[in-house]
Amino acid sequence: MANLAGRFAGILKVSVDEAKLPTLQGALEALKQTGLAVLIDTCCDGEATAIPGPRRKLELTGVDRPGIVHEVAHVVAHSGISIGELASERFVAPHSGKLMFRAEVWLEGVEDNALAELQSSIEALAHDLVVDIQWGDD
Asked: Where do the structural domains in the chain lie, given as residue ranges?
């Protein structure tokens, strides 16, 4: 999901019981009446296609500001690695009262030869974004 030129754009994959699919599709189609552009594509047999290579976890925590997810996604995409999952949240820091940002990003297809370059790029970005980073394995 991203804010592009002042407009929100996002792609979302949803798993739903087949019996409830028509209801979900109807509700999504109804959103078009509000001016929202909606494209519904039913696919897959319920099984995700695995991306070869190990998964790695990247955790980011820092003061919230617009563009953090976009900048991290750009660096990851440039490295040729896929983001399999991303969960983020905003919260108020207990002592300072500042609005903070935390993200847990699962990277897929992370081969050892690409990992060092990605880590270097993410660490440089973290310095610019003023966020703390942690790496982990699957």
From this structure: 1-48, 56-137
Superfamily of domain 56-137: ACT domain (3.30.70.260)
| DSSP string for residues in 56-99 | EEEEEEEE--TTHHHHHHHHHHHTT-EEEEEEEEEEE-TTT--E
Task: Give strand pairing partners of 106.
Answer: 57, 85
Cα 57 to Cα 47: distance, rounded to the nearest angstrom:
22
Q: 132 pairs with which residues across the strands?
A: 61
Instruction: Give tens-digit pLDDT for 15-35.
Output: 788 899 899 999 999 989 998
Tell me how far apart the alpha carbons of residues 22 and 48 are, in angstroms, rounded to a whole number.
22
